[in-house]
Amino acid sequence: MNNDPYGQLASSLYSSLNKQTRQALGGVGAVLGTVTSTGLKLDDFKHEFQDYMVAELPGLLSLPRRTVTGQTTWEGKQVELSFDFEESEVEEARLEPGKGLKPGDRVLAIRVNGGNDVVVVSKVVNAHG
Known about the structure:
Order of helices and strands: HEEEEEEEEEE
Helix content: 10-25%
Distance between the termini: 64 Å
Largest sheet: 6 strands, mixed
Number of strands: 10
Shape: elongated
Number of helices: 1
């Protein structure tokens, strides 16, 4: 039996810190999931989250100069339309990805608060269509 009390203390502390680190990191991280009609189903968790959060991205929206063209019928005649928009900035713009999510959409989610809460960061799609 080891009679080194300092070695035993160090070993005990190492074991305890290792366990605490595993618990702190367990259930935390990015994961793919699918939006359902009643919540969010993560790929690596068997239960559905009915109460989850969605990231909102506030900021300044910069729009480049652009021209929009099209056709319409006016008094029975086809008319070509063209609108020029100057470069502009919209302050206090907000991108709300959650408002565009529907059942079946694949999403990237991050666990927070020790894995107790889930935040959907974005919708993910296949790069090749």
